[in-house]
Amino acid sequence: MVHYRRNRVPGGTYFFTVTLADRRSRILTERIDDLRAAFRIVRRERSFQIEAIVVMPDHLHTVWTLPENDIDYPTRWRAIKSQFTRRIRTQGVPLQANSKGEYALWQRRYWEHTIRDEDDLQRHMDYIHYNPVKHGLVSHVTDWPYSSFHRYVRRGWLSLDWTAAAHDDDENDYGE
Question: What confidence tier does 4 reach under pLDDT thresholds 50, 70, 90?
Answer without folding.
Answer: low
